[in-house]
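Example 3.2
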Amino acid sequence: MATVVDLKVTNKEFQLMLYFLQPERDQNYLPLEKEEINTINWDLFLKSVYHHRVHPAIYKTITEEDYDFVPKYVKKQLHQAYVSNTMNMLKLAGEMERINKALNDSQIRMLMLKGPILSYQIYGDLSSRTSSDLDILIEFDELSNVTKILHSLGYEIAYNPPRILKDWRVRNHHIEFFNINKKTEIEVHWRLHPGPSTEPSFDHLWSSRQEINAVTKTPIQCLGNESLFYYLITHGARHGWFRLRWLTDIIDLKKKVNVSSELIRELHALHLFQQASYLSSLLFQYKFSPNNSFSNRVTRLANEAFGFIYNEINIDHPQTQEWEEKGKRYLFNIKPFSQKVFYVSRKFQANSWDAQYLPLPKQWHFLYLPLRPILWLLRRTS
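Structure, written as C-alpha cells:
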C-alpha cells in the first residue's frame, strides 16, 4: 500500500501558499496557528510562489480578501510582479497576433497551445496566468514553411536537433525559435508530446478546435475544451507537476466548463487524470469527482510528483544526480505498458545523435544499427 503524504510535515510557507490557492477556502479557518503565522519566513514564501508561477492568483487572493497579517512589502512585491506579468502577456498577445496573421496569410493551419490565449480560455483575461513564450501546433509537413515564415519575422532556431535519420521527428516534438530583437521565444510543435506517446491527430484537434475573437483583431484557433483538458493533464504529468500552476489551471478549467475524461480514457492516460485528481484533492481539497479512491499505482505516482512539487525540483533540469535519477524513473513509470515496451526497444535503435557523432554516407546508414551500443558508449564517455 502506497504511503499517503502528510502535509502537516511540510513547512509553514508551503502550507499557507496552498491555502491561498484553494478554490473553495474558508476565510475563517487558517491551516496555521497565530504563533506560526508570526514566524513565517515571507521571503521563503515569495520564493515558492514565484517558483510555482502562481503569483497572479496569490496577489488577487490577498488583495480581494482581508488578510491583514500579510506584510505590506509582500503585497507590494506581488503587485509589482502582477503588473510586470500583465505587461508581458500584452506583449506576447501582440506577437501572437503577428504570427497568427502571417500563417493565416499563407493558409497554414495553426493551433495556439499556451501563452496569452490559454490565460483567456481558463480565466477570461490575460493577467491571471504567467507565460514566458508562445507555443503553436502545426502539421509536421508544414514545418519547413513555418520555419521560413518565422525567419522572415526575425526568428532564428534556438536549438536544432540533428535531423539525419527519420527518428528525430518522433523523438522530438517541437523546435524552439528566438527573436533577439523582441526577446520573444516560440516553440513550434508538430506533436503535443515527445514520442513514444499516444495522442490525438492534428486533424482531430483541428476539427474539435475553438475560436477566440476577444484577445486579438484576428481570430485565434486553439484547442477545444476536451482536448485542452487532456493536454493540460498529460503535459503536467510529463513535467512531474513541479509547478503548482499546472494543477490550478486544470481545476479552474474543470470548474468553468463541462469536460469529461473520455478522450483521456481512449488515449490510455486515465492514470494521469487520476494522479491529477489525487494531487488536487491532497493539496487544494478539490475533488474532480465524488469517487475519491485511488489505486496503489496512482497514489505512488502522485507521491513521486509531490517530491518534485515540494522540493521545487525542475524535472527537466534537476539540480543533482539523485533528482535526475528520480526524474527518469518517474517518467518511465507514468508510461502505459505499450509505451514502456516501445521506449525500451527504441534504446537499441540507431538515432540521429549517433549519425551526428559518426557521419556515414546514406547507403551505409544500415550500419548504425549494429554500431548502436558502441556509439552510445562513446557518446556517453565523451
